Amino acid sequence: MKNLLQKFPLFLFMLAAPLTLWCQLNITGTVTSTANIPLSGASVKLKNNNQVGTYTDVSGKFSLEIPQKKSVLEISFVGYKTQTLSVDAETKDLAIK
Which distant-in-sequence residues (6+ apart) come within 8 Å of 29 by Cβ? Predict the structure, then answer.
């Protein structure tokens, strides 16, 4: 019985881990200028959370997993005004200018 109680927390963790991953939402998109030029190295992050974020690649594309179904992204690039954008479960691909 004691051995079973020692393994129980591990069992709970293994059960709960997939649920937390399942609740995350993957957002992809492209950051471009108003002239439709891809912005490489633009910062895309979850507003008020410095731990969830990424940078765009050379084509201006990004992919980001967010932990909530409704979130606000903050997009910034040197020389441009920082933009905020609401995303939800329906958001699949973003084209940000």
Answer: 44, 61, 62, 93, 94, 95, 96
